[in-house]
User: Fold this.
Amino acid sequence: TERLRQSIDAASLDWGAAAIDTMARCATFVRTRHMHANEAAFMAAKTNMLILLSTLVDRGRMFFPNIDPDGKGVEKEGAYRGSRPPILDALMFTYREIEATNREGGPPSEECGEFIDECRRLLVSELQAHLDPRRLDEIVERYDDRSKENRAKAKEQTSVLRGKLLTRRPNVVLDRGFASNTTPERPQ
Assistant:
């Protein structure tokens, strides 16, 4: 079983590296959005970012299944029932930020980039927790405690990021099947 766990950890790490890279590219994209030569070039780059983020969310579901699949979205396909875990929310919030970004206008570019950077930090923290630092620390003779309190902090940070996104982008719709739901979700 340790070999299987190592294989899953390696695949998770590969997925995480792709997610971190994509989020860094997204932050740079929003910071430099006004520098695209024309609207067509901007839309091509934006579409590329959205495709990368969308596929990362779905690939991430292999490692980070939804929470409480019997409590929400029971009419959906199995992998989409329940609530996304914070690590996938970070990607979805980035997706929604990119989706709402225009070449000109909207929130300041640096502010958009900082929001995506916050999402990336949450993703990195959750990925590290997923890789079970205590077990890895035992293997390499280090110790680092990841408590339930830290997990609660990640959920709290997700809530803060959700609120920021909805404040910054009031027309963004969260937790929908890309266009099937037009009712925005508001922070609780």
Summary: The CA atoms of residues 30 and 180 lie 26 Å apart. The chain has one domain: 2-168.
